[in-house]
Amino acid sequence: MVVSGIKLLASLDHEPVPGRELTFRIEALEPELVLKDITPPPSSATEPGLLLAGIAAARTRFERHLPRFAPPPCPPLDLTAARRLFHAWLAGDTTARADFSAVQELFRLARTFVPRAEGRPRYLPWVFPGLTQAEALTARLSPEEGGPGFRLRLFGHLPNLGPIAVEASHHPTTREAPARTVYRLMLERPQEAADCMAMLVDLRFGKAVLAPACLSAGALPAPLAAGFLARIVAATSRPFTGLRLRV
C-alpha cells in the first residue's frame, strides 16, 4: 500500500473492505517499513451486514419457543398484560430466556448503527398475538413532529397476513387537545387490512384505553419488505479514519 507517497509493506489475513479502519503493528523499520495487520476480525459489533445476519439467526432461534407462549386474547389488545405474561413465561423457561437475551444483545448493538433521530431499536415479540420476526423503533416526538409524545414503528410477520408495518404516534393530553393515538398500516396483503384494524380498535396500556385512529391502510412499500431496521443499518457508513499503527 502507499500512504502519503510512502510505500508500506503489510501482510493481510483477510480481504480489505473499502472504508473499514485497519490496525497495524510495525514489524520492521529497516531496510523497509513492514507492517502486520492486527485488525480485530469483523463482528456484529463492527459490520452492519453481520449484525443484520446475526439478528435474523438469533431471532429465528428464539421464536421457535414462541408456540409455548400463550398471549392474552385479543381484542382487547392489552400491552401491559401481554408484556407481563411474556416475561412470566420467560422466567420459567431457561432456554427461551437465554435465546431471548441473545436477541436483546444484538438489538442493543444495533443502536450504534441507528441514528438517534430514527429511534431506539427494540425487540418486542409480545406486542401482537402471533407476531414473528418482530422489530421496533421507538422515539420521543420532536416539536416538528407535533411533540410532546411518542413514536413507534413496528414491523413483523403475522399468520395469514404476512409482512406488516405500523407507524404510530401517541400525543398526550394538553390544554389545547385531548390525548390521541394515530397510526398508518402497511401490509403485503392490503386487502386484509380490515381484519388487522379490527384488532387495533381496543388498545390498552395499563388503565389507559388508547382507541387509536387509522390514518391510512395500504400496501407495504418495497423498501420496507425486510423491515425498518435492515434499511437503516444497511445504509450505515462509517467514516474512514485512516491507519492505526502500533510499535
Computed over alpha carbons, the radius of gyration is: 23 Å
CA-CA gap between termini: 18 Å
Q: Name the poorly predicted regions.
A: none
Quaternary organisation of the protein chains: single chain
Tell how many strands the DSSP assignment holds: 15
Helix content: 10-25%
List the total number of helices.
5
Spatial order of the strands forming the largest sheet: 7-8-9-10-11-14
Query: Biggest sheet, open or closed, and with what strands and sense?
Result: 6 strands, mixed
Q: Determine the strand fraction and express it as a percent band.
A: 25-35%
What characteristic shape results from the CA principal axes?
elongated
Mean pLDDT level = 85
Could you say which structural class the secondary elements and strand pairing correspond to? alpha/beta
Question: What is the H/E order?
Answer: EEEEEHEHHEEEEEHEEEHE
Write a structural description.
The chain is an alpha/beta fold and about 250 residues long. Helix content is about 25%, strand content about 30%. The strands form 4 sheets. The chain has a 6-stranded mixed sheet with strand order 7-8-9-10-11-14. The radius of gyration is 23 Å and the shape is elongated. The two termini are about 20 Å apart. The mean pLDDT is about 85.
